[in-house]
């Protein structure tokens, strides 16, 4: 399985373990859910939980019960990261005038 990020180059963790930067190609056991987290400076972190026994795009059913499908390395999971608004200051650094004039 290949894990991609948009934009590419995000740091990837699979089930809490760092596996490198996207794109990364891994062999994963089809019997376990896969939790993927992606981080990249300037972007919000993104996470997805993937259940490999489900049909992906209607094309592949990894849940087939035979030895050849026990491990898979055949499809792509893409995580899209949302760009942070570089114009907005971090919440802990708002100007005092802004804090006085605006209430949440």
* Spatial order of strands in the largest sheet: 3-2-6-7
Largest sheet, strands/sense/barrel: 4 strands, antiparallel
Number of beta strands: 11
Examine the coordinates and then state which fold CATH places here, giving the name of the CATH topology: Immunoglobulin-like
What is the N-to-C succession of helices and strands?
EEEEEEEEEEEH
| Rg over C-alpha atoms, rounded to the nearest angstrom | 19 Å
How many domains, as an integer?
A: 1
- What would you call the shape? elongated
Q: How much helicity do the residues have? A: under 10%
Quaternary state of this entry equals single chain
- Helix-strand makeup class: mainly beta
In the predicted model, the low-confidence regions spanning at least 5 consecutive residues are 58-70
Mean pLDDT: 72
Q: Specify the CATH architecture.
A: Sandwich
State the end-to-end distance: 44 Å
Assess the beta-strand content as a share of residues.
35-45%
Number of helices: 1
CATH class: Mainly Beta
Question: What is the compact description of this entry?
Answer:
This protein is mainly beta. The protein has one helix at residues 96-101, and strands at 2-6, 11-14, 17-21, 24-25, 28-29, 34-39, 46-50, 55-56, 60-61, 71-72, 76-80.
Brief descriptors of the model:
104 residues, mainly beta, Immunoglobulin-like, three-stranded mixed β-sheet
Give an overview in words:
With 104 residues, the chain is mainly β. The protein has a single domain (2-84), classed as Sandwich (Immunoglobulin-like). Helices cover 6% and strands 38% of the residues. It contains 1 helix and 11 strands, in the order E-E-E-E-E-E-E-E-E-E-E-H. It has one helix at residues 96-101; strands spanning 2-6, 11-14, 17-21, 24-25, 28-29, 34-39, 46-50, 55-56, 60-61, 71-72, 76-80. The strands form 4 sheets. It has a 4-stranded antiparallel beta sheet, with no helix packed on it. A 3-stranded mixed beta sheet has the order 4-1-11, with no helix packed on it. It is elongated, with a radius of gyration of 19 Å. The chain starts with a strand and ends with a helix. 12% of the residues are buried. The model is unreliable at 58-70 (pLDDT under 50).
């Amino acid at each position: 399985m290949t894990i991609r990020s948009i934009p590419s180059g995000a740091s990837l963790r699979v089930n809490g373990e760092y596996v490198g930067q996207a794109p990364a190609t891994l062999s994963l056991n089809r019997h376990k859910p896969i939790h993927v987290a992606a981080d990249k400076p300037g972007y919000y972190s993104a996470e997805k939980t993937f259940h490999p026994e489900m049909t992906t795009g209607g094309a592949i059913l990894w849940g087939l019960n035979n030895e050849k499908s026990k491990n898979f390395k055949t499809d792509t999971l893409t995580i899209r990261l949302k760009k942070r608004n570089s114009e907005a200051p971090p919440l802990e650094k708002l100007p005092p005038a802004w804090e006085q004039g605006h209430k949440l």
